[in-house]
Write a structure and sequence with these properties.
Number of strands: 7
CATH superfamily of the largest domain: K homology (KH) domain
Strand order of the largest sheet: 4-5-6-7
Helix content: 25-40%
Number of domains: 2
CATH topology of the largest domain: GMP Synthetase, Chain A, domain 3
Oligomer: single chain
Length: 162
C-alpha cells in the first residue's frame, strides 16, 4: 500500500492525498493553524478511516451471516491527548444497523470480530486509545410490508467496550 501527499503550496496548510488506488482528496488544517478549512483534518481522516474499516467488516460479516441489512452507519466520539503527540486516547463507535429481522446477537458478534480480529486500523489505534462500541438495530419494513410507506422502526440496542 502506498500514497503520495503533496503540499498545496505557499500560504496554505492544505495537502492533496493520492492513494495507491488512484483516488485523491484534500486535507487541510484549521484556520487558527494556517489552514483554510478546505478539507478534513488529517486526524479526522484517521478516525474516519478507522470507522469505515470496521463498518466494512461488519457489513461483510452480516451479509455472510445471511442478515438482510439495508444500511450501516458508524458515529464516532473521541478524545485525544492534550500534549504532543496528540494520539487518540478514547474512541467510542456507535453502530446503527438497518435491515429486516436483523439479529442483534449477530451484530454484536460482527462488531466484536471486526474490533478483535479483522480491522487493522482499530487494532493500531487500540494501542493508545480505549475503544468501546455500542449499537442499535433499526427494523426497516419493505415496501410490500409497509403499505403507508412510512418508516416504521423498532430499535434494539446494546453497548460494550473493546
Amino acid at each position: 500500500m502506498n500514497c503520495t501527499i503533496r503540499w498545496a503550496g505557499a500560504d496554505t496548510m492544505s495537502f492533496i492525498a493520492e492513494s495507491g488506488s488512484g483516488h485523491s482528496f484534500v486535507m487541510d488544517g484549521a484556520p487558527e493553524g494556517g489552514g483554510r478549512n478546505l478539507g478534513p483534518r488529517p486526524m479526522e481522516v484517521v478516525l474516519s478511516g478507522t470507522a469505515a474499516c470496521t463498518a466494512y467488516d461488519v457489513v461483510l460479516i452480516l451479509r455472510k451471516s445471511g442478515q438482510a441489512i439495508t444500511g450501516c452507519e458508524v458515529q464516532t466520539d473521541s478524545d485525544r491527548a492534550q500534549t504532543d503527540p496528540k494520539v487518540f486516547t478514547r474512541i467510542h463507535m456507535h453502530f446503527k444497523v438497518r435491515g429486516h429481522n436483523v439479529k442483534p446477537n449477530l451484530v454484536q458478534r460482527a462488531i466484536g470480530l471486526s474490533h478483535e480480529k479483522y480491522c487493522s486500523a482499530t487494532k493500531m489505534l487500540g494501542l493508545t486509545a480505549d475503544i468501546s462500541h455500542s449499537f442499535e438495530v433499526v427494523e426497516e419494513l419493505g415496501a410490500s410490508q409497509d403499505a403507508a410507506g412510512a418508516s416504521n422502526a423498532a430499535v434494539k440496542a446494546g453497548e460494550t467496550g473493546v
